[in-house]
Amino acid sequence: MKTYQLLKSSLTHLLLGLLASGALLTTALSANASVVNFALGADDYGTLTIGGVTLCTYDNISAAGGCNSSFDMQPGVWYNIAIDYKNRAGSDGMSLSWDQPGPASIGYGFSGSFPGLVPKANFRTLNAGGTSYVSGLLGDYYDLSGNLQSTVIGEGPIDAINNVYNNQAVGSWNGYGYFSLFEERLSGQIQLSTTPTTESQLGNISTRGFVQTGDNVIIGGFIIEGPTLTPKTVIVRAIGPELIPPPYNIPNALADPILELHDATRALIGSNDNWQHTIIGGIITADQVSAIQNSGHAPTQPSESAIIATLPPGNYTAIVRGKNIIIGVALVEVYDLD
Fold first, then answer.
1. How many Cβ atoms sit within 10 Å of the Cβ of residue 67?
2. Residues of 298-334 as b/e, b for ≥16 C-beta within 10 angstroms?
3. Alpha carbons within 13 A on the beta-carbon side of 208
4. What's the longest Cα–Cα distance across the chain?
5. Eight-class DSSP state of 284
6. Residue of 304, 282, 283 lying closest to 292 (CA atoms)
7. In the chain, domain spans
8. CATH top-level class for 204-336?
9. Of all residues in the chain, what percent are helix, strand and coil, respectively (each to 5)?
10. SS3 294
11. Which of 107, 151, 162, 291 is least surrounded by CB atoms within 10 angstroms?
12. How many whole angstroms separate alpha carbon 181 and alpha carbon 46?
């Protein structure tokens, strides 16, 4: 029995294809399931075309070895990789595999197999009438050897479909990508993750510099990423006097830093001079002293500045100036509060 490790977001796509092709799920799918067993037995045949060049024909494809071909991928170029196959009796579908020598693929794309190479794939299945049937981003699953496989499973009543696999090499790499078209014996077992994947998260960023007069200020830029309607709450700090005593021992620290927060249009959306006194304006609509104290990141000195902001994805700039034209070393920081 062959075993596959299923990508979390591909579960729906793969199961749709399995069920549409008459697969028998021998274990019920539940929230705490660790495996899904299924059974299909079939043979397929077809053609593989890349960039208008036919690399495999019906006769090349067999359950014994399949059709293995290589194609020189150029950086920044989209290639249409088309599989056009017809089902034989009891067919379960064809697999298109992108194989790269070197370390096994890691993560969600193929990054890590070649330095500077980050291919992106869009895989979709069309029936004979051109209607989208099953689709998956970056393929459907990884097999245990680390190869990303994009698989289409033959549908019983439909006798012909076109599968389009677009692959883009982004970076400075030039080399060979190995594509395999082969009959996939999809009888097997799918392993499902029962625990969420733990992702590393950036806690804070900071920049230290010497604040002078005029436009000679500290500028700290940061970017919030994520879905458009998913804001992130951060606290932005301007630190000065805290740098004077140990362990920092900076005698010329900025005595009274003033903090400004600007959006991508350079518009001022918030400011602060002494964190224990909130300046209402822009995105700051209520007193923030208690929220700053409860954040765990309140400045240690009253003359230092801080702003708590809930911001949509975008580019932002924090600017630190000296009050009353004073100069000195300051620190601008951004902490993630989510």
1. 22
2. bbebebbbbbbbebeeeebbbbbbbeeeeebbbbbbb
3. 11
4. 85
5. B
6. 304
7. 2-191, 204-336
8. mainly beta
9. 10, 45, 45
10. helix
11. 107
12. 9
Is the previous residue joined to 247 through a cis bond, with omega within 30 degrees of 0? yes
* DSSP three-state, residue 324: helix
**262: nearest Cα among 236, 233, 229:** 236
- Would you say 285 and 278 are in contact if contact means Cβ atoms under 8 Å apart? no
Place of tokens 């954040």: 295
Cα-atom radius of gyration of the chain, to the nearest Å?
A: 28
> Containing H/E element for 319?
strand 314-322
pLDDT tens series, the chain, 338 aa: 333 333 333 444 444 444 433 444 444 444 444 454 444 333 333 444 444 445 444 333 333 334 444 444 444 444 444 444 433 333 333 334 343 333 333 322 322 233 223 333 333 333 344 333 333 223 333 333 333 333 333 222 233 344 333 332 222 222 333 333 333 333 344 444 333 344 445 577 888 888 988 888 888 888 887 766 778 999 999 999 999 998 888 889 999 999 999 998 989 999 999 999 999 999 999 999 999 999 999 999 999 999 999 999 888 999 999 999 899 999 999 998 88
How many beta carbons lie within 10 A of that of residue 120, not counting itself? 14
**Under a CB-based contact definition with an 8 Å cutoff, are residues 78 and 84 in contact?**
no
Question: CA 293 to CA 316: how far, in whole Å?
Answer: 23
Helix or strand or coil: residue 143?
strand
Place of tokens 């697969």: 23
Residue 51: other Cβ atoms inside 10 A: 15
Please name which of 91, 105, 260, 256 lies closest in space to residue 186, comparing C-alpha atoms: 91
End-to-end CA distance of the chain: 44
List beta partners, residue 167.
79, 121
Q: What is the DSSP string of 205-243?
A: EEEEEEE-STT--EEEEEEE-S-TT--EEEEEEEE-GGG
Listing DSSP states for 248-260 in one string gives T--TTB-SSEEEE
Report the length, in residues, of the chain: 338
